[in-house]
Amino acid sequence: MKNEKLYKLRCVDCKKEWKEEKTSSNCMDCGGALDVLYDYDKIIEKLNRHLIKTAPITSLKYLNFYPIEDMSKIISLREGNTPLYKCENLAKLLGLKHLYIKYEGANPTGAFKDRGTMVEITKALEMGKKAVCCASTGNMAASVSAYASKAKLPCYVIVPEGTPVGKLAQTLSYGARLIQIRGTYADAVRLTINLSQKHNFYLCGDYAFRAEGQKSQAYEITEQLDWRAPDKLIVPVGCGTNSSAIWKGFTEYKRFGFIDSLPQMIGVQAKGANPIVQAFEKQTMEYQIQDKPTTVASAICVGDPLDGKKILKAIYDSNGMALDVEDEETLNAQKLLAKTESIFVEPSAATGLAALQKIVKMKKINSDERVVIVMTGAGLKDPLSILKVLPNSPVIDPIDSEVDRFLDKKFYQISSANIGDSKEILFDKIPTEEDIKKHVKKEFDIEISNYDLKNAREQMILFLKKGKKIIRSDLQMIVENSIRKGAKKIIKIIDFSVNAEKNKQPIANIEIDYKNKRYKEYSVGVGPVDALVQAFQKILLKNNINYILMDYTVTIKTKNADAAVDVKMTVADKKNNNSVIAMGTSPDILVASIEAFEEGCNLLYNKNMKIK
């Protein structure tokens, strides 16, 4: 059943109007973004105010405010009605009285995109399209593929290589036909537009119809604040579609008479992808395209925001502001939010809290203002990023004494410490044990034992011998590693060397002390680590020990080429059919790897001795 059409599409730049059958994405004359213009007088005539005021919150409650004509085509996964949390712990920490988080991670696919996807997939069915396609940095890919699956429409998705694995897993699970490209989000958009035009697919994305679904966030916030608008609304900005859509929702509710005021819009971008912030700082509507944006906040890693002018206008019209945050500030805010309010969000969502912290420091907010941060996606969308600022959890034997050791060492306080500027140089020459002790107390508020202190100093000496200055994040990794080590060293690496050439297999030489007797061995391998491990294993086999490497992962927690490396290995004992997880830390990946294998061997040896 079709309703009367109460809207039209118009270009934001040249003001030319378009029929949706021709385009619902960009102006075909100037390439500008399109906006949906409504006949608000007719909408107000039909508006059931009692229903809006009394009916439970759901995205489908606002059907009169969407550009949907055929209600029988609606594809919904019960999106919307996401919680608005009052964050008293966080508010107290920041010196505020009224701080709220609109948690969009509670949507069906874990992100705000579902609100807009509901409208877009419905429009695809209205237009009789046989397939849909989209470009994405992850969240839209998951959302569009989910709704397309429900609508029984084939879905083609193009994403930049390196898109978070959680989002890729979702997208593939819904049955999408996924392509990763060695390029940027802008490249993905260009390819997807071409794909839609060649094959007559419905083009989903940060376009006019999507914005209409996403503006319902503003409706819900208004209702959840007892029919009041917040004083400040903080929202991450990628393409600018979601943030400008929320502003549109507030302006509509004011037009309809549901609220008396509008919020200040505060747009937040990552430092490495900030064209809107740069335009705001120049107080212009024109922004410079960034060809190679980069940030840990992948969902807003956009250098050419299609709706940039829309969000800039919203910021200016609301007397708002735009500011950017460093990746490290984002990850620390992500951790702070989880710790204080038990809300786990993806990095792009956490940029809002990082920005609020800066605004508080800048004294550009009053303590009694009502502040809402829109948290756009759930933390499990990108679970790996937060690990860059969290310690590795210890792995222990299942005995009470090991649990007691964990408590006595206060290992848990390392994870809760906010170590500030993680790149600050702490040591550029070999420190005394007393210097290390003071820094550990200052950064983590723990008393480190003499045994752990000795381990930490030995690791620092190795770092410095490699030419690596020890920064704050290195200290965190070293202390974690020192406290974690509990096995008695029966097997010790004396030294090793590796000769690696481009067209030849690497050759590794290693010297090991086992029960106070020294052994030397060499081996070739497919790579330097493989050659080292095989040489190590030869010595073990000579002593009737058969330990093998089962799993191997490498984590680099900072971006620099001289970054410290965290290696995690699973080492197994074939004879006794058990395994352990071991770790190594060094600025040298070979050192970190062979140290992890050494630790694994000692853990297994000690474990076997306890069994005997």
Secondary-structure topology with pairs:
Layout lengths: L6 E5 L5 E2 L15 E5 L1 H7 L2 H6 L29 E3 L1 H7 L3 E6 L9 H14 L5 E4 L3 H13 L3 E6 L4 H9 L3 E5 L3 H15 L2 E3 L3 H7 L1 H9 L7 E5 L4 H15 L8 E7 L4 H7 L26 H10 L3 E5 L1 H15 L5 H15 L8 E6 L24 H10 L2 H5 L8 E3 L5 H12 L5 H16 L4 E2 H13 L6 E11 L2 E11 L2 E8 L3 H15 L4 E10 L8 E9 L4 E9 L2 H23 L1
Parallel strand pairs: 5-13, 6-7, 6-9, 7-8, 10-11, 10-13, 11-12
Antiparallel strand pairs: 1-2, 1-3, 4-5, 14-15, 16-17, 17-18, 19-20, 20-21
Helix pairs in contact: 4-5, 4-8, 5-6, 8-10, 9-10, 10-12, 13-14, 18-19, 20-21
Brief summary:
This protein is of the alpha/beta class and 612 residues long.
Strand % is 15-25%
Number of helical segments with 4 or more residues = 21
Structural category = alpha/beta
Percent of residues in helices comes to 25-40%
**Which stretches of 5+ consecutive residues score pLDDT under 50?**
none
Q: Going across the major beta sheet, what is the strand order? A: 4-5-13-10-11-12
CATH class (first level) name of the domain at 86-104 and 212-382: Alpha Beta
- Distance between the terminal alpha carbons, to the nearest Å? 77 Å
Shape: elongated
Q: Based on DSSP secondary structure assignment, what is the total number of beta strands?
A: 21
Oligomer: single chain
How does CATH name the architecture of the domain at 86-104 and 212-382? 3-Layer(aba) Sandwich
- Return Rg in Å: 28 Å
- Could you tell me the CATH topology label of the domain at 86-104 and 212-382: Rossmann fold
How many strands, which pairing sense, and closed or not: the largest β-sheet? 6 strands, mixed
